[in-house]
Amino acid sequence: MHDKLILxxxxxxxxxxxxxxxxxxxxxxxLHLILGFSAGAVLAVAFFDxxxxxxxxxxxxxxxxxxxxxxGFFAYTVLDRLINTHGNRHGHDGAxxxxxxxxxASLSAHSFVDGFAIGAxxxxxxxxxxxVAVAVIAHDCAxxxxxxxxxxxxxxxxxxxxxxxxxxxxxxxxxxxxSLYLQFSGHDLALLLALFGGxxxxxxxxxxxxxxxxxxxxxxxxxxxxxxxxxxxxxVRLAG
Length: 240
What we know:
By secondary structure, the chain is an all-alpha fold. The protein has helices spanning 3-26, 31-57, 62-88, 92-124, 126-153, 158-179, 186-214, 219-239. It has one domain. The chain has eight helices and no strands. Helix 3 crosses helix 7 (186-214) and helix 4 (92-124) runs antiparallel to helix 5. The model has no long low-confidence stretch (mean pLDDT 78).
């Protein structure tokens, strides 16, 4: 019944993601500030969006949701270390590039889930679908910035960053389209959101946050991190 509306909103998330990536590209000289903002935004997505939603969908077993988030965090840690070890055999640049691509792939997978969540929300009701859509469109701009930042920080070229940005931008459209044919139970979706929450906690705390402050240990960088967190928190509160 709402198929066309769902796909139209998904296209809006695509535009928001591309806009965020474009901002990251033109502000490359201020990359440390953007990385600081991205770190706050990524951590805020986990703390204020993914994990709370997972707990709402599975209120009877919150310990399982946190356990899955922990699995996501440590699984990403292991993958990161393995990639880093393998990449060091081919030089530091190979390891950094692989880490950037892994982060961009995780963001793209999250964007797919975002698109699916829009469709699932509208299957529940127009009101729920609208709230989810507002939240997704607002933070997909930050997702676009994060995708470009991760690839560029890893030593990737602008062309490679744009390719990953395009993947991230089309992912919610594919997710929304999939929602018209597939349906997860609330329990399964809760575990999926918790898993990505763990991924994002690692990306923000162990990658973006230290990197943003390492070369530019200034108060402004810290303020940008707090601004990124406050921005995402405000978006989630207004949408919810």
